[in-house]
Write a structure and sequence with these properties.
The longest helix has 29 residues. The protein is an alpha+beta fold. The termini are far apart. A 5-stranded mixed sheet has the order 2-8-7-4-5, with no helix packed on it. A 3-stranded antiparallel sheet has the order 1-3-6, with no helix packed on it. It has a domain of 109 residues: Macroglobulin (MG2) domain (Immunoglobulin-like), CATH 2.60.40.
Length: 184
């Protein structure tokens, strides 16, 4: 049988979890005789809605006890969708599940910067001569034919083409030689 345990949750410098933070979870994992090898780590609210990115771990070896520190990124919550309070860290996989409650309060302000966009409206008048010029330019560009001539050719393509011409020239000389040899 397999075993999962959340040993410790590392919050960072201030020992507090905020939305947008990256938590580090110390997990003890034992994979027994199971064909499953994938483990997920994430944080959920009281409605079991995920409030973090999902970190995945694959344990390849059977019958091995492993201790890992796995990061999990909390959502920034810039729109205030989630309230402060108790949340659960979930370690799930190998037909086992382990949870630990944590408190999350506040948001990481640097992830929720507001970008202000200023908009200018202009009421410029365009004269009829400018409109006529722009329509003439448009007609001129549409009447020009589109050609498909090669502007740039790589050295590999040039070498390939030169090889084909060289082969044709050698083949032509060989045919001329055989014709003259036959006539003599």
């Amino acid at each position: 049988s397999s075993f999962l345990e959340i040993e410790k949750v590392y919050f960072g410098n201030d020992d507090k979890a905020r939305f947008g933070d990256s938590l580090r979870i110390r997990a003890v994992i034992y994979r027994g005789d199971t064909s499953k090898y994938n483990i997920d780590l994430y944080v959920v609210d009281k409605n079991n809605d995920q409030v973090s990115k999902r970190s995945e771990i694959n344990i390849e070896d059977k019958f091995k006890n492993i201790t890992l520190i796995v990061p999990v990124q909390l959502e920034p919550n810039c729109n205030g969708k989630y309230s402060n309070g108790t949340y659960k860290v979930v370690l799930k996989g190998l037909d086992e599940i382990n949870t630990e409650e944590i408190e999350i309060e506040g948001i990481t302000k640097s992830l929720c910067e507001v970008i202000k966009i200023s908009e200018k409206t202009s009421s410029e008048k365009v004269s009829s001569s400018q409109l006529q010029q722009s329509s003439e330019i448009q007609q001129e560009t549409s009447s020009m034919p589109i050609t498909s001539s090669v502007i740039y050719q790589s050295s590999d393509i040039k070498a390939k083409n030169a090889g084909i011409y060289f082969f044709c020239a050698v083949l032509l000389l060989l045919i001329i030689y055989l014709i003259f040899k036959k006539n003599l």
